[in-house]
């Protein structure tokens, strides 16, 4: 599933009653039409003729098959989602070189000659980034990453610049920086079950909004939105929306995309969920802890910091893992930053403040 950024329509691959690529109104969910998926045009083979879909910034639709061997991987292109365009093969059938199964993942960015298509190995460590010189024929560049095999196997998404993000159920959320010229990818950040839920299987990143959307397979399954504004911290949960059904999704598959002012999520066997994106407007001045430093007081180490916020009473809390927080103190804040000092118990700790 993917969202067309030009018109907000949702493109959905379905195998109910044959191979279909449906166009759904992103505003009200009405099924508008089908794209041409005639078998005499979708000739690339694969265990599934169509499996994943993505839409470029110019509205061109790209979809790939699922190849368990990698040898017959095929990418198709429709010029738009009007229903009048025929598909054309822009890559394959061929082996992009990631080493086996490919087609479980797909992401598209850019437009025309700047279009890039990302697909990852299901159980390996390599990804293929397809580029084009004419917007019609695509060639793969294999990027060998230093991830663990399968870490990128269920979901990949372009990040900002030359970065990508990947996830699989029970695996860490991983950010990789890649060099197309060298064909290498290096893990920049990895967040395990402590910092990011292992129950998440599918993710999508919106670099412009600095946020990440994730499908978490829990009871019930839900769509979660995380902030990526602070790159040195794990993604911070902002909101979540529950799917209205909770059927089994044994393979942990689905897809998420942003567009039309919405985030849209397909949780396989549980339907498509669309949530309108809004921007939180703080009702009070932000709470800022700053000037954190360790000082010596009568031979004992203490953490000293300043708390700046609107006048009022605040609770200072401390954590060693960003999960369990314990109260340190409650303080009254005036209009000026208030220096605070606390005896160091743990060698390293996080501090936060919240209104009483």
What can you tell me about this protein's structure?
- The protein is mainly β.
- The radius of gyration is 23 Å and the shape is elongated.
- The mean pLDDT is 92.
- A hairpin with a 6-residue loop joins strand 26 and strand 27 (326-333).
- The chain has strands spanning 2-3, 10-14, 20-24, 31-34, 48-55, 61-66, 73-78, 88-94, 107-109, 116-120, 126-132, 138-145, 155-158, 163-167, 173-179, 184-191, 200-206, 211-216, 222-227, 236-242, 254-259, 262-267, 272-276, 288-297, 300-308, 312-319, 326-333, 338-343, 350-355.
- It has an eight-stranded mixed beta sheet with strand order 9-10-11-12-16-15-14-13, with no helix packed on it.
- Helix content is 0%, strand content 51%.
- The protein is built from no helices and 29 strands.
- The protein folds into two domains: 2-276, Methylamine Dehydrogenase, Chain H (7 Propeller); 288-355, Immunoglobulin-like.
Keywords:
eight-stranded mixed β-sheet, mainly beta, single chain, Methylamine Dehydrogenase, Chain H, elongated, 356 residues
Q: Care to count the β-strands?
A: 29
Structural class: mainly beta
Basic shape: elongated
Name of the top-level CATH class of the largest domain: Mainly Beta
The tally of structural domains comes to: 2
Mean pLDDT value: 92
**Gyration radius over CA:** 23 Å
Task: Report the helical percentage.
Answer: under 10%
Look up the CATH topology of the largest domain. Answer: Methylamine Dehydrogenase, Chain H
Strand content: over 45%
CATH-defined superfamily of the largest domain: YVTN repeat-like/Quinoprotein amine dehydrogenase
The largest sheet is: 8 strands, mixed
CATH architecture of the largest domain: 7 Propeller
> What is the string of helix and strand elements?
EEEEEEEEEEEEEEEEEEEEEEEEEEEEE
The largest beta-sheet arranges its strands as: 9-10-11-12-16-15-14-13
How far apart the termini lie comes to 44 Å
Detail the poorly predicted runs: none
- DSSP helix count? 0
């Amino acid at each position: 599933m993917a969202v067309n950024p030009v018109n907000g329509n949702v493109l959905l691959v379905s195998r109910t009653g044959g191979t279909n690529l449906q166009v759904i109104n992103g505003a009200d969910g009405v099924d508008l039409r089908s794209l041409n998926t005639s078998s005499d045009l979708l000739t690339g083979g694969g265990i599934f003729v169509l499996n994943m879909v993505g839409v470029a910034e110019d509205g061109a639709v790209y979809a790939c098959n699922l190849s368990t061997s990698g040898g017959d991987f095929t990418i198709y292109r429709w010029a738009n989602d009007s229903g009048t365009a025929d598909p054309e093969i822009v890559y394959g059938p061929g082996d992009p070189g990631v080493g086996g199964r490919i087609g479980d993942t797909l992401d598209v960015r850019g437009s025309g000659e700047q279009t890039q298509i990302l697909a990852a190995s299901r159980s390996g460590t390599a990804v293929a980034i397809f580029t084009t010189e004419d917007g019609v024929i695509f060639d793969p560049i294999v990027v060998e990453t230093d991830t663990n095999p399968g870490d990128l196997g269920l979901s990949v998404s372009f990040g900002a610049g030359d970065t990508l993000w990947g996830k699989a159920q029970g695996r860490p959320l991983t950010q990789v920086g890649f060099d197309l010229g060298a064909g290498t990818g290096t893990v920049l950040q990895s967040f395990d079950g402590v910092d990011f839920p292992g129950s998440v299987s599918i993710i999508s990143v919106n670099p412009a909004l600095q946020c990440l959307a994730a499908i978490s397979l829990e009871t019930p399954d839900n769509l979660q939105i995380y902030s990526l504004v602070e790159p040195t911290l794990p993604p911070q949960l902002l909101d979540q929306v529950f799917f209205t059904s909770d059927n089994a999704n044994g393979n942990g598959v689905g897809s998420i995309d942003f567009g039309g002012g919405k985030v849209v999520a397909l949780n396989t066997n549980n339907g498509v969920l669309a949530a309108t994106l809004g921007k939180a407007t703080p009702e009070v001045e932000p709470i800022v802890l700053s000037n954190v430093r360790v000082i010596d007081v009568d031979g004992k180490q203490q953490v000293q910091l300043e708390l700046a916020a609107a006048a009022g009473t605040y609770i200072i809390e401390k954590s060693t893992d960003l999960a369990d927080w314990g109260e340190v103190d409650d303080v009254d804040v005036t209009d000026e930053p208030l220096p605070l000092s606390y005896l160091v118990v743990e060698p390293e700790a996080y501090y936060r403040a919240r209104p009483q």
